[in-house]
Amino acid sequence: MFFKSVKMNRRNLRARKVVKALVNYGCVIVRNTDHGVIVENPRNYKSTNVPTHRDILAVWIYNNVLRQLDIDKKDFERFLE
User: How far is CA 15 from CA 5, 21, 43, 78, in A?
Assistant: First the structure.
């Protein structure tokens, strides 16, 4: 059996696009640093650094950002479009 995957391809995520989607989701940019942007989730007051010193964000970093902010991946995916 062959199943068609409905997962979105997240290999070429732009860092600025992820930050913009986080803001649209409801997160707040706390400050900019040399290495990235500190983003806080006001729903649970968790914060993390989103690295923006490179254009492309690695998949594992994207997954860690969502995990550290305690954001459900399925809910967040619609903000990336």
Answer: 24, 10, 22, 16
